[in-house]
Design goal:
single chain; 378 residues; mainly alpha; Trna Endonuclease, Chain: A, domain 1; five-stranded mixed sheet; 5 strands; 73% helix
């Protein structure tokens, strides 16, 4: 569009220059000089040619202006069409972008909600872990925690009467729990465990700290094993083996992985370390042993009940046989009744058809029919 305006301005400037040239080439005041007249005639011819060229140039300028206007109109139409297409495409793109942005924001809000929930759960878990650490840091509360876990396992797996908490032995010692076995010798379970040394061993950062903590673990755990063996293993009164309950699976695994010598010393001292899972397994085995013992003790009663059942079965068999005899007699009676009914049916059919065989006297077992007499006959 700017190019067309520049071309038009150039044409107008050209026309102005051509008009100025014509003005300059006009003849001046006529003189009598023939040479001047000839020059004047030449100038007039040149001016006429210049006027003709100006007219031609004006026509061309007008034609070019029309062409430029047409081109400008086409250019404007094309630009409007392109602008409309670009606007429509931009509107569609904006709508799609808005929709995608809305969907992504919605998904982001959902994920943020999930993250908030997870963060809340983590916060609650952190508070629980903190409270659990506070519980485990104190020896008395830690003992109560281990006692509670052990009691929950025992109460869930064994019936009442087959165990006892804080049982008093003949030597006056009171273990945390005893399980009453069939041979009347209880199995002792101790729920106290020295956790400070294990915690120090885990928190040790340098090799010297871990070495010192490992030595402390061996001393504390071995002392606890010896205390259990001395206090709770009473020959003839308790079982030959006692259980030391470790209330954490990770601590139990760490003892087996890093302190196998303690485990072996415990075996030799008849004190077996058990985790919650192993204690549950041991209780299930004890429960099965108790059931087997109860079954053996009840074998005489079971045998007696089976004898009564066999007697009742024999009596039932005799009654079934009698009932079968009654059914047989009933079947025979039904057969004779059906035979008599068949004979009666046949005789009735013959009477209906007036089919009498012979004219002799009726059989002795047939009642004769009364004879009809005529009127007035005696």
């Amino acid at each position: 569009m700017e190019t067309a305006l520049l071309v038009a301005i150039g044409l107008v400037v050209g026309l102005a220059i051509a008009g100025l040239a014509v003005f300059i080439a006009r003849p001046r005041t006529p003189v009598e000089d023939p040479a001047a007249a000839q020059r004047a005639a030449e100038q007039a011819a040149a001016a006429q040619m210049a006027d003709q060229r100006v007219v031609e140039l004006g026509a061309r300028v007008q034609q070019i202006g029309e062409l430029l206007a047409k081109a400008q109109t086409q250019l404007q139409s094309s630009m409007h069409e392109r602008l409309d297409a670009v606007t429509a495409h931009l509107g569609t793109s904006m709508q799609n972008a808005t929709r995608h942005t809305t969907e992504n924001l919605q998904k982001l809000n959902e994920r943020l909600a999930v993250i908030d929930s997870a963060q809340k759960n983590l916060t609650d878990l952190a508070s629980q872990v903190t409270s659990l650490r506070a519980v485990l840091s104190n020896k008395q509360t830690r003992g109560a925690f281990g006692q509670g876990r052990m009691e929950a396992i025992i109460q869930d797996q064994l019936p009442k009467g087959s165990y006892e908490f804080q049982f008093t032995l003949k030597n006056g010692k009171r273990p945390d729990c005893v399980v009453l076995l069939p041979d009347q010798r209880p199995l002792v379970i101790d729920a106290k465990f020295p956790l400070e040394a294990i915690t120090a061993f885990r928190d040790g950062k340098t090799e010297d700290e871990r070495k010192f903590a490992a030595q402390r673990v061996r001393q504390d755990v071995m002392k606890h094993i010896n205390d259990i063996a001395e206090k709770y293993l009473c020959p003839g009164e308790t079982q030959d083996t006692a259980l030391m309950f470790v209330p954490s699976e990770s601590v139990y695994a760490e003892l087996h992985d890093g302190f196998d010598d303690l485990v072996q010393k415990g075996y030799r001292a008849q004190v077996m370390m058990v985790s919650p899972a192993l204690l549950m397994l041991a209780i299930q085995v004890i429960r099965q042993v108790q059931k087997d013992t109860q079954m053996r003790e009840a074998a005489d009663l079971i045998r007696s009940e089976v004898g009564h059942m066999l007697k009742d079965v024999r009596l039932l068999s005799d009654r079934v046989k009698k009932l079968q005899t009654h059914f047989g007699q009933a079947n025979e009676d039904l057969g004779t009744i059906l035979t008599s009914a068949s004979k009666i049916e046949k005789r009735g059919a013959r009477i209906e058809e007036m089919d009498f065989e012979g004219n002799g006297a009726p059989p002795a077992n047939v009642i004769p029919a009364p004879v009809r007499r005529a009127v007035g006959e005696f």
